[in-house]
Amino acid sequence: MNLSPCQSCNTDYRRDKLKQCPSCGAVNDSIGLKPSSETSSSQPIVNKSFSSETSVEASDIERLIEAQDRTTHAVRAFVRFLFIQLSGLTAAYVVWNWSMSFVDQQKCYSNGTNCGGNTFLQIFAILIWIVSVFLSSRAGWSELKKSEV
Q1: Region for residue 47 given its phi and psi (left: phi exceeds 0; alpha: psi -120 to 50; beta: otherwise)
Q2: Which residues make Cβ contacts (< 8 Å) with residue 49, sequence separation at least 6?
């Protein structure tokens, strides 16, 4: 490879293939020995096509910010929904398994009695699950409404 240092920032790059330094944007001359007089070493070229003809107005920036806010709220709706669902399902799973710890396996195998878990804890686990579905849906929809156009 034919790497040459940039005269402005001393970064090595292929001056035979690239007209501008990828680090500072300095333009090399046709020989490739020094940057052209268009650029100064303290001021890199950003984009020559972005000039005074294409000006960005305040309304464009405001519309961009509004679009980003809508996207943020849509993503936040999905994340809040999943987080509340995961938290609720985890809590319900823990309570349900705690209720199953009350099963007496000896009596269940020998007599066929006491084979179910604690009824109160199982009902409580189901209520946790139902409430988490309701809360996560409500939180998700409220965030999603904020992302409407």
Answers
A1: beta
A2: none
Q: Which two tokens stand for residue 116?
A: 């179910």
pLDDT in tens, the chain (149 residues): 677 788 788 788 777 777 777 778 777 764 444 444 444 444 444 444 444 445 667 788 888 888 888 888 889 889 999 999 999 999 999 999 999 988 888 888 888 777 888 899 999 999 999 999 999 999 999 888 887 76
What CA–CA distances, in Å, run from 141 to 50, 106, 109, 136, 145?
40, 48, 48, 8, 6
List Cα–Cα distances, 56 to 66, 67, 71, 125, in angstroms.
16, 16, 22, 56
Q: How many alpha carbons lie under 13 Å from residue 62 in its C-beta half-sphere? A: 3
Distance CA 13, CA 46 (A): 18
Name every residue whose Cβ is closer than 8 Å to that of residue 125 and which is 6 or more positions away in sequence. Answer: 92, 93, 95, 96, 99
Spatial distance between the Cα atoms of 78 and 144, rounded to a whole number of angstroms: 8
Question: Is the distance from CB of 147 to CB of 70 less than 8 angstroms?
Answer: yes
Residues contacting 66, CB < 8 A, separation 6+ = none
**Residue that the structure tokens 């946790």 belong to:** 128
